[in-house]
Design goal:
The complex is a heterodimer of chains A (111) and B (115). With 111 residues, chain A is mainly β. Chain A has no helices and nine strands. Chain A has a five-stranded mixed beta sheet, with no helix packed on it. In chain A, strands 2-7-6-5 form a four-stranded antiparallel beta sheet, with no helix packed on it. In chain B, the strands form two sheets. In chain B, strands 2, 4, 5, 6, 9, 10 and 11 form a seven-stranded mixed beta sheet that branches. In chain B, strand 5 and strand 6 form a beta hairpin. The N and C termini of chain B lie far apart (35 Å). The relative contact order of chain B is 0.33. The chains are: A mainly beta (111), B mainly beta (115). At the A-B interface, strand 4 of A face strand 5, strand 9 and strand 10 of B.
Chain lengths: 111, 115
Amino acid sequence: DAKTTQPTSMDCAEGRAANLPCNHSTISGNEYVYWYRQIHSQGPQYIIHGLKNNETNEMASLIITEDRKSSTLILPHATLRDTAVYYCIVRPAQGAQKLVFGQGTRLTINP
Amino acid sequence: DGGITQSPKYLFRKEGQNVTLSCEQNLNHDAMYWYRQDPGQGLRLIYYSQIVNDFQKGDIAEGYSVSREKKESFPLTVTSAQKNPTAFYLCASSISPGNSNQPQHFGDGTRLSIL
């Protein structure tokens, strides 16, 4: 599985856009990029995923570079409830039963 | 509301006892999974099931057992053979197994502690 690299921690002001980077330089052409977040003492929450194209849903936007070696998760208007650990995960297209979570980015939203 | 329900939220076990963690989903998902999370660590796959009456070992199955008699239920038993059972246990499900274009959705977990 391709490995991912994320900053250990980030801060963002409430109401501003939070941009979380992820490097996955060894990603293969058929591997998806997934983002989850985990708030303390809760289960991981699915946010968004994509293969090649940029994606947007009600929670966030995912921007994947043209060479697919990196991506950015954008929370457009961060709130205090967005404080969590955010995980970027690369999944093979077929046969992948497990999700491999790295250390993630601890995002703190400040009032 | 559709979702995944894990119970209980907190569970205490005496050494030598087996305990069973419940996981129920009403999402009509075929695949279900059990993960274990230790403090400051990532998730590790214990068991998964792709269909009723079938399940497969994950990376750390020793000391655990599961059953999948109904589509919506995938209970995990932590046996006395599991030497270090204190952890946060997470159940997940997905529409179809092995399809990476379908996300896994998680319950809120059960925190197991040894007395």
